[in-house]
Amino acid sequence: MTTKQLKERLIKRIENLSPEKLQDLSRFLESLETENNKMKVLTFAGAWTDLDRETFDELTNNLENRRKSKRTRFF
To answer: pTM to 2 decimals?
Structure first.
């Protein structure tokens, strides 16, 4: 089944849903999108593991000051 066929099939099924089921479907789709966002964030897990201690301390200890200075780049 092609993507186009699948979309058409889903649209037909959605058109026949009750309002309550439409709300359920909407919540389900939102949960999928939220899960997708979580996975995107998790791709950064461990990104700082190879930083030396001095660089890590500089990034974390001065974070508030850098945010206040409104600089968008660290380097």
So the answer is: 0.47
